[in-house]
Each structure stands twice: as C-alpha cells, then as structure tokens.
Amino acid sequence: MPKIKNLSDACKVSFSPDGPISEEALERVRALLDEIRPLDLGLDNEAQIARTWNSSTRQQNGRRGRGGPNQYAPTIKYLHIHECESFSMGIFCMPPSSVIPLHNHPGMTVLSKLLYGKLHAESYDWIDVADPTDPLKPRPARCVRDREMTAPETTILYPDRGGNIHTFRAITPCALFDVLSPPYSAENGRDCSYFQKSSVKEPSVVLPSDIDSSEVVWLEELEDHQPPEGFVVARGLYKGPVIRR
C-alpha cells in the first residue's frame, strides 16, 4: 500500500473536525509522516534537481518586470493532495529565494515535513498580555525558531504554541509537505492572517514579569487577511498516488 495512503488512513482516525483526538494519535501520524519521501509523492525528479543544485550555477528566479529581472518574487507551486472536514494535505514547492510570508494557522495543529532541500524557518508565539490590543496594532511575540532546516525534517506546531506564526525562505529548491488539522475554514474562524514586524519600538502594552523585553518581537497584522504584495502561489500538478475519499 502506498505510504501516502497509510498516512491518510491514520489521519482519518487520528483527527477530528476539532483537531487531533489525542497527543498519542498525533504522534502516530508524525511517525508515518517521517517515513514519507519525495518518491512517495511523485517528486523524485524535483528532489534530484535539488540535490545537485548550487548557488553558483543557478538560473535567475522571478519574473522580469519594468524594474529589471527579479522584480517579482519567484512563484511557489502548491500541490493539493486531499482535504476533508478533519484535515488537509498539500505540498509547497519553493524555488530558491522564494518566501512564504509571516502567517498563522488559527485553531489548527500543523505537521510540516521538509521533503527535500534547505530553507530558513522563523516562527513566533504570542505572549499573553493582560489587556489584548487591537489585532491590527503591534502585539508582542516570542521567537520559537530562527534557523535553517535541512531535509528530511518534521516539525509540529499547535494552535497556541510551537511557532504558530511563521515564515519560510527557500535557500535551495525545496518542498514542504503540510498536514493541517482541522483545515483552514473562514466560516469557522480559521482564516489565514499575514503579519509583519512592527517599526514601533515600545508599544503601550504591559509585558508579563517573567518576559525579558530583549526576547520580544512586535508583530502587526496586515489588513483584510491579505498577503504582502508580490506573494504568488500557483496551483501545480500533484503526480503522486491519489487519495480517495
């Protein structure tokens, strides 16, 4: 049986419309995700290209605009695999220097498997404050991860910890396989928001006494759930085994 089918079957019994049914069930899914390789998802050729890629021979990325080459960010491809009310699965194929901007997964648990290549990951969690501010005003967050990731590597983030607000920058060609539970759903309050680091140095928010101000980053939400200008994701063709409902 294809490994992706085993993973899907585990997700069906481990996830509910409210997320993972238990920590043990989540770990079972993670164990199967750890076994997934590019070949299992129809990405063996892309993985081979990533293995032989080097910065000195790479071609220019990005579309040519009036300002010259690379005025626009390289286009990321999203390969949709499966979605139901309890979980979704898909792959982001990222060319070198492409960026998935700072965004969140409200009310969701996310497993991310770097299938091939290398990227830089930066993630944050909100710091609880006594008087929450307007979401469009700067809010304090603590850095959870700021490092390079090299395939194969799997991470888990939770609704309120583990780096729910995060961004990825591709260093080489890479692919990120995401399993989300439950999936995005605007009508159920799980709409993706995008953020940026604030230029405000000292917002008027009282931090908890155990928080060192030097560890704090202030983030502000972009309006109307819109991503930064230039962020482009195109639908790609998934060539791996099909998941039946």
Automatic annotation (TrEMBL):
GO MF annotation: an example: cysteine dioxygenase activity
Catalysed reaction, written as an equation: L-cysteine + O2 = 3-sulfino-L-alanine + H(+)
Biological process per Gene Ontology, one example term: detection of hypoxia
Pfam families cross-referenced by the UniProt entry: PCO_ADO
The keyword Lipid biosynthesis appears for this protein: no
UniProt entry keywords in alphabetical sequence: Iron, Metal-binding, Oxidoreductase
EC id: 1.13.11.20
InterPro entries tied to this protein: PCO/ADO (IPR012864), RmlC-like_jellyroll (IPR014710), RmlC_Cupin_sf (IPR011051)
Top-level taxonomic group: Eukaryota
Matching Gene3D superfamilies: Jelly Rolls (2.60.120.10)
Cofactor(s) the protein requires to work: Fe(2+)
PANTHER family in the record: 2-AMINOETHANETHIOL DIOXYGENASE, CYSTEINE DIOXYGENASE
Family recorded in the similarity comment: Belongs to the cysteine dioxygenase family.
Protein name: cysteine dioxygenase
Lineage, broadest ranks: Eukaryota, Viridiplantae, Streptophyta, Embryophyta, Tracheophyta
